[in-house]
Amino acid sequence: MSLTVIAQRMRTNSYHRLVVGLLLSATLALLAACSSSPKNGVRVVDRNGVAQRPAVTTGQYVVRRGDTLFSIAFRYGWDWKALAARNNIGAPFTIVPGQTIRFDGRAGTRPTAVATSTVTSPSSGSKTTVIKRQATATKTAVAPAPLPAGPAPKGWGWPANGILIGKFSSNGSLNKGIDIAGDLGQPVLAASDGSVVYAGSGLRGYGELVIIKHSDTYVSAYGHNRRLLVREGQQVKVGQTIAEMGSTGTDRVKLHFEIRRQGKPVDPLQFLPRR
């Protein structure tokens, strides 16, 4: 065999080894990328959880039918007492549709009242309707000082029977409370004594929701119900049935349960008895 043929074969073998090496390297790199990165390069988030958001401190909100001061405070991460103080709203903390609730340093306003009167002209006998609008003063509200926290209510009980399928997340990205799986229509119970301050479906992501005020510091929330069995202003006792478990606002039957201390979510498992 001539030296020329031997050299050609050596070059061919070297080329084959180079191609195989490149293909092997590319395959290993692809496998590593698939194992270390989520599909499509997008971080996967549990869509059944209610994402935490920081309290809103700018802008304003116009009250709609069905809103309460407590539901607005709950939605935007406020302590209801601080939000009432910022907007000069006193007891019994009633708000009306069209009223402006502000989150910044300005005072909120109620809808402008309109008064009408009819004036008859002596000369012509014609009638003229005069419309008078009450002037609404715009003033700057002083940001309220932090209010002292009261003691936690005693006698907490579990809001439903079932398997715990979601736990509280303190990093602000996933779950503000806990999730309990159960059967459609099973009882949802008040976790402690208190007063119902919201019963409706106006808060996105919670479905049919009940909020109970236990003290000036603590409220609890019960979401995704099929049917609500209490009304706003009703007094409830621990263990009392307040709703039927459902799947409104989510994709499976479960109860989403939260406890908030001065408007901030806290881990319900720190309050509920061990089981």
Keywords:
275 residues, single chain, 27% strand, alpha+beta, ten-stranded antiparallel β-sheet, Glucose Permease (Domain IIA), 14 strands, globular, two-stranded antiparallel ribbon, 3 helices
Report on this model:
The chain is α+β, with helices and mostly antiparallel strands and 275 residues long. It has helices spanning 3-36, 69-75, 80-86; strands at 60-62, 100-102, 114-120, 127-133, 163-166, 178-181, 187-189, 194-200, 208-213, 218-228, 235-236, 241-245, 254-261, 264-266. It has three helices and 14 strands. The protein is globular. The chain has a domain at 163-270: Glucose Permease (Domain IIA). Strands 5, 6, 7, 8, 9, 10, 11, 12, 13 and 14 form a ten-stranded antiparallel beta sheet that branches. Strands 1-2 form a two-stranded antiparallel sheet. It has a two-stranded antiparallel sheet with strand order 3-4. A hairpin with a 6-residue loop joins strand 3 (114-120) and strand 4. Keywords: Lipoprotein. Residues 59-103 form the LysM domain. This is Lipoprotein NlpD/LppB homolog.
